[in-house]
Amino acid sequence: MLTLTQQIQARASELGFELVGITPAAHSETIARYRQWIENGYAGEMHYLERHLPLKADVRQLLTEAKSVISLAMNYYTLDPPKALAEDPARGQISRYAWGDDYHELIRERLLELVEFIKKTAESELKTRVCVDTAPVIEREYAQKAGIGWIGKNTNLIHWRSGSWYFLSEILVNINLESETPPLRGSCGTCTRCIDECPTDAIIEPNLLDSRLCISYLTIELKESIPKQLRPKMGNLIFGCDICQEVCPWNSKAVSTTEPGFHPRDGNLAPKLLSLIGMTQQDFSKRFKGSPIKRAKRRGFLRNVLVAIGNWGEKQAVPTLKNVLADEEPLIRSHAAWALGKIGGKTARQTLQTRLTVETEPEVITEIQDALLEIE
Description:
Structural class: alpha+beta
Shape: elongated
Oligomer: single chain
Order of helices and strands: HEHHHEHEHEHEEEHEEHEHHHHHHHH
């Protein structure tokens, strides 16, 4: 007869979780290092991480009665974009995790189904807490302790058989489940590809990431202007970045997910940059409803697109950028000015000079002035 742990693992697999591990609920063993990471400023403007520190110290802060942590991983790898699309600077690159539906809702629904199964199967009154990404849990620590994988030099959790294209989640339960802590299989060894290939040198040493330099942070979490010295290094990445995973040798073993919700929505696989820039708020809300991309909001997403257009550097974008200089969002106008400065030419200069006569926002005025110096 299967133990409760084995039954949970079997049901989790049926629900689409490829990797499942169970550990006792306990005080975090990495909280001191995590606290130091925040104190060093590596979290950037993600101030919520500091606010969550007391909760992250122990999962029992989230569920007082918690005795076990069920760690789960769901594969979101679908396909490799055609080389012609991936290398076309006129197209934007979106991180794979955001190609399809918002994983938060999809995974939460599956976790709740698993909770219902446990309630029916366990011979005790059950108390639970489901956690999907945004919950204050140091999830990679518990996943590694549960044998799901090891934390790689790029700070992602890597499984020896199938790599790192996984969403992590947890269920806290108030029952003692049988747990195993198998020895970890695989390692990064001497490989440093993720460190070497990061365009912004965000991985400052193995297993230590400075979020302020990470393109995923810059295009999603950062809400204001992207530092000018980092913009040219972003290429055509307009939402997130997969480079440190794409170059990881362990991901050569990745197998496509069977979850249809993670497959690319129409228009999310290397969209043309100029097709995105004219979106109104209504257009943005409609296009990215139920998508992780909505987190960046219109102002942040179009900011990212404008950086990519500037890096593309083609004069055919100038007429579109001229219109964008009149956008109601100063953040968007300022990055449009930067893009015009990168493209250069007589028309771009005239466009910037004309806008300078009516612009009132100091930040935008500075960007226009800097862009004109770039052209001259």
